[in-house]
Amino acid sequence: MASLSAVCICGATTSITVSHRYRPKPSHLSVLPAVPVLRSSTKPFNHYSPHHSNNFLENFGLRRCFRFVNSISTPSSSSSSITSSKTVGEDDDDEDEDDDDDVHHNGSISSKSWVDILPTQLRPYVGLSRIQKPIGTWLLIWPTMWSIALATSQGHIPDLKTMILCGLAAIPFRGSACTINDFFDRDVDKMVERTKSRPLASGVISPVQALLFYGFQMLLGIGSLLSLNKFSLILGIPFLFLFSTYPLMKRLTYWPQAYLGLAWNWGIFFGWAAIKESMDLVVTLPMFIAGVSWTLVYDTIYAHQDKEDDQNVGVKSTALLFGDSTKQWTTGFAIACIAGFALSGFHAGLGWPYYVCLAAAAGHLAWQIWTVDLSSGDDCSNKFVSNQWFGAIVFAGTLVGRLLT
């Protein structure tokens, strides 16, 4: 007490640092309640881990408070110089919407994310399945849609029932693929900047819960397709094996993107079988090779976001394999992609509009490859997401080429 009096009399400024701790709402009292605290914008580190952000804690009525008081003027001072950082997680206005695991922002319905209307317990599962980021679902849907349109009789529109069933099934199948990927990668994801806030890596969801959720999504996907013919269902079995084992490939080979291409484009065989109840490899195999080559383009670009972290933790990818030669390699894959589509369309007897759209698709791939900044994670992500439009262009060409044949 005597020391404090001495400080006040001399007019000295004392620097005090306040450590953080968790407190239940609505209490937000600082350990120095009499001192006014100014607020500044501090961005939360992530959305899941209680070790990095208070968003998850807020969902359960808790708040982590970080208050740093740089200087406190004594009563004898003529002016006060007091600065502090805000409570972490209070302002998410500048949140990066392309962040891999942007599931919710501040736990309120007024946030930018639709996920905030869901019950708190469901939000981590949304992050696990990536439902809020549909690009992966589109990349899975398009090969099946191409094949269904390709198998349609000349002058007719594709079977809408089959398209709807396959489209609906793609949502849980893609979610289960993401879930099993995060299950196998949960320890690796903790060491990668972009993925360490994922629900499994941060501990919000347990491995057992993830496996149960994986099985639930698989049942939903399979159930959506039970009304299709038996041949297509049997042909779908290799697909289930491929996407369930894909996460292991990045530990075994530098070509996990090629293995992903096998899984993500298996719908080309499945879609044809769902319409024809048979298989014509002369038509479907060139398109399948084109789809795998396409996947090698977009997923190699995507993998460049994590190449430094992957190298540090020992995870393999074509981004690491190709290095500075990535654009040359992806150009080769793009050529193989367009050639495969052209050969498939020729054998299927598609009309000239197909080739016009194919030229537009080739221009889209060329734009991606030669304008992407492989050192920019944001640009790699943007180019990756743009592939939903590549798929749409090819589908439009297949549809119109079949109708006008």
Automatic annotation (TrEMBL):
HAMAP family: UbiA (MF_01635). InterPro entries: HB_polyprenyltransferase-like (IPR006370), Prenyltransferase (IPR039653), UbiA_prenyltransferase (IPR000537), UbiA_sf (IPR044878). Its cofactor is Mg(2+). Its main location: membrane. This is 4-hydroxybenzoate polyprenyltransferase, mitochondrial. The keyword Hydrolase does not apply. Residues 73-85 have a biased composition (Low complexity). Residues 90-101 have a biased composition (Acidic residues). Pathway: Cofactor biosynthesis; ubiquinone biosynthesis. NCBIfam families: ubiA_proteo (TIGR01474). One of its GO terms (cellular component) is mitochondrial inner membrane. Its EC number is 2.5.1.39. One of its GO terms (biological process) is ubiquinone biosynthetic process. Catalyzes the prenylation of para-hydroxybenzoate (PHB) with an all-trans polyprenyl group. Mediates the second step in the final reaction sequence of coenzyme Q (CoQ) biosynthesis, which is the condensation of the polyisoprenoid side chain with PHB, generating the first membrane-bound Q intermediate. It catalyses: an all-trans-polyprenyl diphosphate + 4-hydroxybenzoate = a 4-hydroxy-3-(all-trans-polyprenyl)benzoate + diphosphate; 4-hydroxybenzoate + (2E)-geranyl diphosphate = 3-geranyl-4-hydroxybenzoate + diphosphate. It is found in: Membrane; Mitochondrion inner membrane. It is an enzyme of class 2 (transferase). The chain crosses the membrane at residues 228-246, 258-275, 281-298, 329-346, 352-372, 384-404. Keywords: Isoprene biosynthesis, Membrane, Mitochondrion, Mitochondrion inner membrane, Transferase, Transmembrane, Transmembrane helix, Ubiquinone biosynthesis. Residues 73-107 are annotated as: Disordered. The keyword Membrane applies. One of its GO terms (molecular function) is 4-hydroxybenzoate geranyltransferase activity. Belongs to the UbiA prenyltransferase family.
